[in-house]
Write a structure and sequence with these properties.
alpha/beta, Rossmann fold, 7-stranded mixed β-sheet
Length: 263
């Protein structure tokens, strides 16, 4: 038996909460796609009903004003400092932060969340409030496994893929679960060729004397991948979710239009 991740309501777009922490460029692309669909036949199947940011210095206010979307600001660093911590690394406190987020999101009657450059780990209160309906994009091919585990997870995924000699990079959209970057894969972007400086091999970049070169190369590729990957697959994934095209079976396999997605 397969169960849709979301079942559309005729004439009523899927209501989405857009989570962001910084520039919000991924969220802008989602909102631009929403506007494009709204101006086309049939309208948009989704609507960003609220923007949530954990960073008062983010672009959330400007994006909200541009697209006329309300904004919730819940300062995560202030939250931690009020509890005696100078960073947000202590994850045992995070559920309290996320419970407050769920309460503040309540009036917007959301169906799903999209993490569009949200830099905080999501914990059980949010996962339980939106089971299987939180979507994220990760700057790596999550299909690549090593001993049964995903190889390129975490903040340095682009760098790790380049140093490992991957000839291409991909962005992956996935369902957010309680294991970081561990949820079911929904979409993978087309391959983006890795371009190294002349005379350098992937292994050379891992040498201590090439640390700054590697940092620059990784940043350049991450920016290229955002444009060619994130900005393509994240809005499309949200659109397909809103149209009811995704489903899961009891074994956690993802189906698109009733057919299993290839691993």
């Amino acid at each position: 038996m397969i169960v849709p991740l979301y079942s559309p309501r005729p004439g009523d777009p899927m209501r989405v909460g857009g989570f962001m922490s910084g520039s919000g460029t991924n969220l802008v692309k989602i909102l631009e796609r929403q506007v494009e669909l709204e101006n086309g036949p049939g309208g948009s199947p989704f609507r960003v009903a609220v923007i949530f940011t954990d960073n008062p210095g983010s672009n959330a206010g400007r994006i909200g004003a541009r697209f006329q979307v309300p904004v919730i600001v819940q300062d995560i660093l202030a939250f931690y400092r009020s509890r005696g911590h100078e960073s947000k690394k202590e994850l045992s406190l995070r559920p309290e932060f996320d419970r407050a987020a769920v309460e503040r999101l309540g009036p917007y009657a959301l169906d799903a969340l999209v993490l569009a450059g949200y830099m905080s780990v999501v914990t059980r209160p949010l996962l339980e409030a939106f089971p299987g309906r939180i979507v994220n994009v990760h700057p790596a091919d999550l299909r690549v496994l090593v001993r049964g585990r995903r190889k390129y997870t975490g903040d340095q995924a682009v760098r790790d893929a380049i140093v490992s000699g991957e000839p291409f990079l991909h962005a992956t959209t996935h369902i957010v679960r309680d294991v970081v970057d561990g949820g079911e894969i929904l979409m993978v972007s087309p391959p983006l060729p890795v371009e190294l400086p002349p005379g350098l091999r992937p292994g050379d970049l891992a040498l201590p004397e090439n640390r700054e070169i590697l940092k620059r190369v990784a940043a350049e590729h991450q920016d290229r991948l955002k444009q060619a990957g994130d900005w393509v697959v994240l809005p499309r994934t949200l659109e397909w979710l809103a149209r009811g095209r995704y489903a899961l079976d009891e074994d956690g396999r993802v189906f698109l239009d009733g057919r299993p997605l290839e691993p």
